[in-house]
Description:
Blueprint: E1 2-9, H1 13-22, E2 33-35, E3 38-42, E4 54-59, H2 69-73, E5 80-82, E6 85-88, H3 93-105, E7 112-116, E8 129-133, E9 144-149, E10 152-157, H4 168-175, E11 183-186, H5 195-200, E12 204-209, H6 212-224, E13 231-235, H7 238-241, E14 249-254, H8 264-270, E15 271-284, H9 290-300, E16 305-318, E17 321-331
Parallel strand pairs: 6-7, 11-12, 11-14, 12-13, 14-15
Antiparallel strand pairs: 1-3, 1-4, 2-3, 5-6, 7-8, 9-10, 15-17, 16-17
Amino acid sequence: xxxxxxxxxxxxxxxxxxxxxxxxxxxxxxxxxxxxxxxxxxxxxxxxxxxxxxxxxxxxxxxxxxxxxxxxxxxxxxxxxxxxxxxxxxxxxxxxxxxxxxxxxxxxxxxxxxxxxxxxxxxxxxxxxxxxxxxxxxxxxxxxxxxxxxxxxxxxxxxxxxxxxxxxxxxxxxxxxxxxxxxxxxxxxxxxxxxxxxxxxxxxxxxxxxxxxxxxxxxxxxxxxxxxxxxxxxxxxxxxxxxxxxxxxxxxxxxxxxxxxxxxxxxxxxxxxxxxxxxxxxxxxxxxxxxxxxxxxxxxxxxxxxxxxxxxxxxxxxxxxxxxxxxxxxxx
Length: 332
């Protein structure tokens, strides 16, 4: 099978492999091959390979000895991947440790296994974690990862910031709508999973968050992805900076599903003459979109004409509850 590979002289192979692995770019399901003094290291994302490395397409055999956690356990465990970490949500401690041991023993490219130890809580939406396997900090446990998503890399500490890998497709859908020169405000920016892809498409992005650690990571990630000149990161409640950006935005992201309606006054203040709002909500399946649309109309009309352009169920949130997005256009 032909896959993208980094071509490197054999003597530089291990250093290059480590460099790619640190960015979670090594495609572990394929073998590294060699020919005439060159190594060919398969990669997961050709667009994310540093420009100073030589990228080629080359036939690479699939690894034949992939051992999965399911093969070791005798059942299919449930987990999410976040960079080089595996995320569990297990109430049974013994079962969680059994799954963690199998993940570490398997051929998955995982260095840390974490189990959720609390619900999301507080204004910054973080949770407690149990570290089941991994090394990093002085006490042998690290909750910091580098996660790759659609060609972008995001450093984050899951114990200090909120981040959901499940929303990758939704974030990509929204970012694809952005054009160069757009002015975007991400009202709850976190570490930048909306802001950075939008800036990479040429938008000027203002990212706001009340969590100072998230803003530190947003700045770091803007540098990491080469868009620091187009990202302004602000540690604040967005309602406190709305006046500074009054009438500025062509596009607004409101990804705070449980309470975005509390911030609609600020969103309308920030909106320009023609502005699209991506409004995230959690509602009952019987009427998933109505409450959000009514809330937006109540604040925006009659100053703006309000047009709902897209109604989208992002995912199931709880029994009979949906996480939804409304793409709403405001025209003054």
